């Protein structure tokens, strides 16, 4: 039926068959055997960078239990345009993240005159989102590691010990150790759970590494001089002192 519809449309209009949809208005679409999955991974990463939260500490829930938010809470007022921009971005994200719907809707009530308390609560949602962004990034790294292990195995160098991946996010590590799909993680695309499966098989071992010791930071962010030089030394880069003269 779909193919016949395509043929009829192409007879009437000038158009090309681009195959299965993969991206639509910032929403990533993955059509797998298990079903059709939608996510906004890139949008989430961009949002974290926009509000300088890409290196924030993560949490497991978007709201503090029992917290009461009021229009006048006594705290300092914040930039309303910035707050509305963040709320608007989070509302768009609820298209694929219903788990943040309640928190975002609640905090959207204060867009007219937001306070520091309200802004802090919205940033908590970003901290919650970052945990899964880290998990997905670790899954991508895991896939690369598995690929390299297969190449080594084909060359007769089978790896008996698991490949260690260092992660500075405890929440992401916790997801890999929980074999049960629950409400907080069931929305994550099933393909990203390959990390959990690789960990169960003993091919990958995810270890915690504090942010201060994370060598990968030198490849992903701007660092102050002392930290940059420290990490540069740890990855083996050193000054090469030239001796003698240059000859023709």
From TrEMBL:
Residue span, Reverse transcriptase Ty1/copia-type domain: 1-64
Pfam families: RVT_2 (PF07727)
InterPro entries: DNA/RNA_pol_sf (IPR043502), RVT_2 (IPR013103)
Domain of life of the source: Eukaryota
Protein name: Retrovirus-related Pol polyprotein from transposon TNT 1-94
């Amino acid at each position: 039926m779909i193919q016949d519809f395509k043929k009829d449309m192409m007879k009437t209009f000038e158009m090309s068959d681009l195959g299965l949809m993969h991206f639509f208005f910032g929403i990533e679409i993955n059509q797998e055997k298990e079903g059709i999955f939608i996510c906004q991974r890139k949008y989430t990463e961009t949002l974290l960078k926009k509000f300088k939260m890409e290196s924030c500490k993560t949490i497991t829930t978007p709201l503090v239990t029992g917290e009461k938010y009021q229009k006048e809470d006594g705290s300092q007022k914040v930039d309303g345009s910035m707050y509305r921009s963040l709320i608007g971005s989070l509302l768009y994200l609820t298209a694929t993240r219903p788990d943040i719907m309640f928190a975002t809707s609640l905090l959207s009530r204060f867009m007219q005159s937001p306070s520091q308390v309200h802004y802090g609560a919205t940033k908590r949602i970003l901290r919650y989102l970052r945990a899964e962004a880290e998990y997905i990034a670790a899954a991508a790294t895991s896939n690369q590691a598995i690929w390299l292990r297969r190449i080594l195995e084909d060359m007769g160098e089978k790896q008996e010990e698991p490949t260690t991946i260092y992660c500075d996010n405890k929440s992401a590590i916790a997801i890999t150790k929980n074999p049960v799909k629950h409400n907080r993680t069931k929305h994550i695309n099933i393909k990203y759970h390959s990390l959990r499966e690789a960990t169960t098989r003993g091919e990958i071992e995810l270890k915690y590494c504090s942010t201060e010791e994370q060598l990968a930071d030198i490849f992903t962010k701007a660092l102050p001089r002392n930290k940059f030089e420290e990490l540069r030394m740890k990855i083996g880069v050193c000054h090469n002192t030239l001796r003698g003269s240059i000859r023709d």
